[in-house]
Amino acid sequence: MNFYETFHPEFQKELRESGSIKNFRSGDVILDMDAYVHFIPLVISGSMKVIRTEEDGREILLYYITPGESCIVSILAAIKQDTSKIKAVIEEDAEILMISTQKAKEWIHKFPEWTDFIFTLYQKRFENLLEIVNSVAFQKIDSRIMHLLMQKSELYHSKEINTTHQQIADELGITREATSRVLKQLEKDGYISLSRNKILLL
């Protein structure tokens, strides 16, 4: 089902008339740390990832945004007229509906379903963050890597994942050396098969 169809016809009309659709390529940064938010990105197709970057350059993946979803952090920053605390990067080529922050704020009072959409996103992302806290605090690196690979497999609808050891390390906030060591052990144990810039889940 097209995500538009989940909204009331009047709101569907507002979305189409008020937003502008743009296409982005994998790797494009559409929102950076400490930047003011001038639009709300609503994913129509493809996906993007939300990353937290520390002052020393280390990054950690917070969550993925898939079709029919938006970034709750950018919505809250826009409403508060605050700067972004995250970086949003296109994961796979995407079509994005760009919604002005002014419209996003108006709709909170005009369309209850938009408010419901925001609260639903907030709950989902809060659960995502709880998973990350649990993962970092209690899971071993091999479990964290396998969880990330399964996330990517679901995202791309394929057991073959195009990624590098460095990309995995960056997304999990661990070293490349540790990542490579664990991936080789996972291959030895029969969970994955490694090839150049590709990982196959077995």
Features:
alpha+beta; single chain; 3-stranded antiparallel beta sheet; 5-stranded antiparallel beta sheet; 46% helix; 202 residues; Arc Repressor Mutant, subunit A; 2 domains; Jelly Rolls
Write the layout of secondary structure elements.
Blueprint: H1 9-18, E1 20-24, E2 29-31, E3 39-53, E4 59-65, H2 72-80, E5 87-100, H3 101-110, H4 112-138, H5 141-156, E6 160-162, H6 165-172, H7 176-188, E7 192-195, E8 198-201
Antiparallel strand pairs: 1-5, 2-5, 3-4, 3-5, 6-8, 7-8
Helix pairs in contact: 3-4, 6-7
The first-level CATH class name of the largest domain: Mainly Beta
When the domains are counted, the total is 2
Helix residue percentage: 40-55%
The chain-level structural class is alpha+beta
CATH architecture of the largest domain: Sandwich
Radius of gyration: 18 Å
Q: What gap, in angstroms, lies between the N and C termini?
A: 31 Å
CATH topology of the largest domain: Jelly Rolls
Q: Number of helical segments? A: 7
Shape: elongated
Number of strands: 8
Which percent range describes the beta-strand content? 25-35%
Notes on the structure:
The protein is elongated, with a radius of gyration of 18 Å. The protein has two domains: 3-136, Jelly Rolls, CATH 2.60.120.10; 140-201, Winged helix-like DNA-binding domain superfamily/Winged helix DNA-binding domain (Arc Repressor Mutant, subunit A). 46% of the residues lie in helices and 27% in strands. The mean pLDDT is 88. The relative contact order is 0.14. It has helices at 9-18, 72-80, 101-110, 112-138, 141-156, 165-172, 176-188; strands at 20-24, 29-31, 39-53, 59-65, 87-100, 160-162, 192-195, 198-201. The strands form two sheets. Strands 1, 2, 3, 4 and 5 form a five-stranded antiparallel beta sheet that branches. It has a three-stranded antiparallel beta sheet with strand order 6-8-7. It is of the alpha+beta class and 202 residues long.
